[in-house]
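Checklist before submission:
- one chain only
- standard amino acids only
- sequence pasted in full

Submission:
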Amino acid sequence: MKWHSLKWKALLWLMGSSIVLVSLATWMAHRHLRWQFSRDEVQQRAALLVRTLSAAVRGEPDIVTRLVESVGKEEEVVLIAVVSSTPPRVIASTQKAWVGLPLPALPSTVRAELQKALGSRRTYAAFRVEEGEYHLIEPFSLPAGGVSPDGAAGAVLVYLSALPWSQSPFPALWSILLPLFGGIVGIALLSYGVFHRQILRPLYAMQQTVERWIRGDTTAYVPLASRDELGALAMALHKMLATLSAKERSLQQAKEAAEAANQELRAVNQHLEWTTAWAKDMAAQATMANAAKSEFLARMSHEIRTPMNGIIGMTELALDTELTAEQRDYLETVKASADALLSLINDILDLSKIEAGRLSLDPIPFSLHDCLGHTLKTLATQAYQKGLELTCHLHPHVPDALIGDPGRLRQILVNLVGNAIKFTEQGEVVVEVYQEERPPDPPAEQSGQTTPSDQVLLHFAVRDTGIGIPPEKQQIIFNPFTQADGSTTRRYGGTGLGLAITKQLVEMMGGRIWVESRVGQGSTFHFTALFRRQQQVEKPFLSRGHSSLQGVRVLLVDAYPQHRQIILEMLTHWRMECTAVASGHEALSILRQAHDKGQPFSVLLIDTNLRDMDSFALVKRIKNEYQAEPVILILATTGQRGDATRCRTLGVAAYLSKPILPSDLFEALREALEPSPPSRESPPLITRHSLREQRRHLRILLAEDNLINQKLAVRMLEKRGYAVEVAHNGREVLELWNKEAFDLILMDMQMPEMDGLEATAAIREQERSTGTHIPIIALTASAMQGDRERCLEAGMDGYVAKPIQPKALFEAIEESLKFQKAPPPNPDAPIQNDQVSDRQEA
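Returned file contents:
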């Protein structure tokens, strides 16, 4: 049997506990017998000494003294003293120093015991276990004629030690311990036998049953019928074995089913492997197809934009010449069709970029007011041709200097405002911009991001009075190729890509877009966009009040309430004293009242679209009636040829075209209110013409291999007043640049022999040794992802996509020359104002 079996564990435990009990009993018996024997021995010895000394006291004193000295030499004697109570003194003692001492001079313990025995005339006995001593004091009385003739009494004190007797061997102890030990061992063996029969044997039977069941004998059972806990354990073991047998059978069945399923799975895996290989092959083909599509789009973009550049550009040049009404109508139709085709191409390219995940933003510093002004002025013509009022309302606290992607913002606005104009037959289109409180940012923003204080969330709203959108169509219009009216008989055309692209752009700019509309009552498209503030001082027209305008009295004459409210808000923000009327007759009445009170108006703002009289007729009457007439500014809804001449004839200070932006109006008012030099008979009219006449005469090197594009670009630039030299490839560019001095280079990207990127890199390499820098603007018919970035990385200063739009080209030129040194000003030249423009085109 193994040592770790229950049998040996039980036997060892019982034997060990028996030995411990026997040892403990032996120790206790030994201790009790030892002290009992020593006490009896010392009591007998002390009593014998006391009787001997008491008898000796009745004899001679010398005999007592000699007896005390003799007995005191024995080992067990601690102290002997014979004391007389009359007088209280020590007669004899083993402590010789005590002889003759009075009772009070003895130690306190001895004195107390003697006083107790003498006072009670009784024997005093005490066993000091902690000291191992026995104290016995026996009082005595002396007969007449003895040691104490007067018959006085006394006491004999004996202190004996019990230690000598406690060390004596006790042979009788073993006669007690041996039977005790044998009895305990016998009881332990009997207990083990009972334990083995009642507990161990059933456990062995259960163990053998489990072992047989493990070997496969599922019929094995425990032959135990007791009703105690072991019987319950055996019954539970039977149930467990039965359950395991059932589960074993179920497991075998499941194993067989799993094997069948495994065979099916292997077949499925083989099919899956084939399917995966096929999917990988399809994915590779899709990647190749996507790359081919991107390459095809890039090539088609270049191939289509190149001839369209000539079509659109030459059409614009033809429209600026003397034409008959029929010819002008034909050319305007051609240009409108070309613009629509270009817009469609741009939408398809943007959609392909979005699907490929390649559409990205290019955040740069820009002016919000300039961006809105340029964008809305391009849309104003088609709005006013339909008789619509196009207004822009920028709330005073909207920041101007921002960092974002102005091109994508302009694309969103053009799409939304263009749709508003297209679907509106009468009324107005209003663009409103205000700042929203941005919700708190989540924690743990990525490193490198700006803090929330540097960011601004702007809310744009484009409201029109058009046909409206049904509620069930207001969500699907943001899906690609979806329109509110998708029937073949719809009145308004379009591909349905614009709003889908707009939604993607808005979400990329950290905002969202939604629409509010009611059929027949117009629509309002809302979108938000997140920008960063530039770390620079805002422009003066954003400040609250200005020294040159504060307190100036202004009369505003405008028939449209919305536009009148917007202008009043601007003027009030600059702390000007404002009065607004809706008609010319009201204006004349207010002017007369102010003149009679001696409080004339300093500035008069007149809209050209008054309902009761012609605005120029109103100006003429004012000029005729008042000698000290106010400074007059015309706000033109639709520009007409000859308006500038009429303004100069009537002495109008400025001619501004709607929509009026705060920067436009602020600069016009400040320029108009400045006193003119005495040498001038009359100040010049502030128009776009006055700015064009003061532009610097630039020498531009044009790199273009396409003859039509050469002719178009040269005509555009020369009409602008620039001198142009043409190069047909990159090598000619380097040769002409090394021979002559130019102010700017317009570089085509794709040219024979040497393309634009290589020519630009060569120029920038040479400039490293000279320390000079000539602005280079890329001209390319490619408008795919990364084209602009490649141009800027090559060292170019700007990027203009074909077909070339004159406005975009001239803005790029002005931007690239922004930091170039300008020639000294001409004192006889008109006052320049980049924020004021005239709708008349020469």
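Reviewer check: The longest strand covers residues 522-533.
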